[in-house]
């Protein structure tokens, strides 16, 4: 069976609640491999909630549907403050990226408390700003950035990542609305270890199964390289997204 956009592969999925230092409860989900201990963990930071971004935005949802089974990777998703999806609505109000530092910290602390191995951040658009501004934590191995606009993140934030030496991988769509590969390479040049990957034909929202596969393969190549490249077919049980 070919893995398609609506394919949901087996995983142990559990609803979770993140508790922030400023007293909010955030709605989330943890997807774990069913048949083994996870090799690594991806903590997802979603796109802008005022533009319909949420934990169920399609690339992050598909990561949770596929990576536990295909790569043995745990996927933690959550709605930042004030954000709603079919999983529920997190407490609080959208804070333009400032108060969300508590949300990022709560997710990282949850991964640490649960003993989830080798956490990486996977940020998309607004989520890349949160990763760059608030995610360079001692517990985090590195970050993968999808469509980074670099609107809120500053050179000082990039310098923190440079000084930490943690891996930083930016997937930049050729046709992005905000930051395209050439300019992205200039902006990220101040991070010595940063890797900027231009993706031909891709747009900011990564619509289309070929682009989703590019993203998920890049994630797995960094966080669980022994599982790369991801298969495109599956011969076990599965469900279809409804």
UniProtKB/TrEMBL annotation:
InterPro entries: AB_hydrolase_Est10 (IPR053145), AB_hydrolase_fold (IPR029058). Keywords: Hydrolase. GO terms for molecular function: hydrolase activity. This is Alpha/beta hydrolase. It comes from Streptomonospora algeriensis. Transmembrane segments: none annotated. The keyword Cell wall biogenesis/degradation does not apply.
């Amino acid at each position: 069976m070919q893995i398609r956009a609506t394919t949901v592969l087996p995983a142990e999925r559990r609803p979770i609640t993140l508790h922030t230092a400023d007293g909010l409860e955030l709605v989330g989900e943890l997807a774990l491999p069913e048949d083994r201990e996870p090799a690594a963990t991806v903590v997802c930071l979603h796109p802008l909630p005022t533009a319909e971004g949420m934990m169920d935005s399609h690339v992050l949802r598909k990561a949770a549907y596929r990576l536990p089974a295909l790569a043995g990777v745990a996927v933690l998703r959550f709605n930042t403050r004030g954000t709603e999806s079919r999983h529920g609505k997190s407490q609080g109000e959208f804070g333009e990226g400032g108060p969300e530092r508590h949300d990022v910290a709560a997710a990282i602390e949850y991964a640490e408390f649960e003993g989830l191995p080798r956490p990486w951040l996977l940020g998309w658009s607004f989520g890349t700003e949160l990763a760059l501004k608030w995610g360079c934590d001692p517990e985090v191995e590195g970050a993968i950035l999808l469509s980074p606009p670099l609107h809120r993140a500053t050179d000082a934030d990039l310098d923190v990542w440079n000084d930490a030496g943690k891996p930083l991988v930016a997937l930049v769509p050729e046709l992005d609305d905000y930051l395209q590969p050439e300019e992205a390479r200039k902006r990220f040049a101040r991070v010595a270890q940063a890797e900027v990957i231009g993706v031909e034909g891709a747009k900011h929202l990564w619509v289309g199964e070929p682009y989703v596969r590019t993203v998920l393969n890049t994630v797995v190549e960094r966080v669980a390289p022994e599982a790369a490249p991801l298969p495109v077919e599956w011969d076990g049980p599965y469900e279809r997204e409804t």
